[in-house]
Amino acid sequence: xxxxxxxxxxxxxxxxxxxxxxxxxxxxxxxxxxxxxxxxxxxxxxxxxxxxxxxxxxxxxxxxxxxxxxxxxxxxxxxxxxxxxxxxxxxxxxxxxxxxxxxxxxxxxxxxxxxxxxxxxxxxxxxxxxxxxxxxxxxxxxxxxxxxxxxxxxxxxxxxxxxxxxxxxxxxxxxxxxxxxxxxxxxxxxxxxxxxxxxxxxxxxxxxxxxxxxxxxxxxxxxxxxxxxxxxxxxxxxxxxxxxxxxxxxxxxxxxxxxxxxxxx
Length: 265
Hints:
By secondary structure, the protein is α+β, with helices and mostly antiparallel strands. The protein has eight helices and five strands.
């Protein structure tokens, strides 16, 4: 019994020891440096960006009164959301025809899924990259500073994400503006043919609240600024920055030596 207990205890402690070693190896003070602190901000704002866009849902609607009869009123409520394929969102339009009491299936106008999905996908990739880069920076900082390939790769990826965030935020902002116009109650009533008939009155219903989607665009541009600002701090870790400093210090040292030689003469 004692041998089995002694053999089970090291097995139970080994995963804990591995976790403890991993946590002890993390240098949390690196978060106080600009390179580590900005990566934390990039990680957080990537979550905010794709979370606000991907979780959005709203409603628009209208009311249709047939034959100017207060009792014959039909309410239309249309729900939509991410990924904003509005042309696949259906709603029922009353025909206001006594001989045909059935309704007609209609669709919203427009497909804005491309900029929305690109925006969310970029946010997810930014989330995973910054998390991996942050762990590598905290745990294996010696490799990051000694092997100059890692700062070069980090710099190229940072520049790429900066460009993609600018494109994604601008494209999603334009797509959201078009989606707002397509989901307005006035656009809904304009698209229904029954509203252009006689003795039919159509009025605007629920106006969609686009606050969460607007915030996602704001977070997109904040991500662009964070990645653009981080380019400088990552560039300082690359050998290119050291070469520029050496080239700047070389002529000054030579000029100082020449001045000293002249003074001795």
